[in-house]
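ENTRY TYPE: protein
WANTED: fold as tokens:
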Amino acid sequence: MACIKIIDGVKIFIYARDHNPPHFHIYVAEYEELVRIEDLSTYSGYVPKKYRKKVILWATGNLDFINREWNNLNPQL
């Protein structure tokens, strides 16, 4: 598990040996949401909108980095 970014206390993780579809995890307080890398849609879970907006804004400009991290941590997929 690798924390790839922290935005105002919101942690973004990509797990090694994770499952498809390629995604990242958002953690804030007691909330967790999985977001598909392909289209930044919610795969599972929920985080409050104000936190999700910050993460999606960052992710939109950093898709190459996120994809690279996914591929580095999940080479078998």
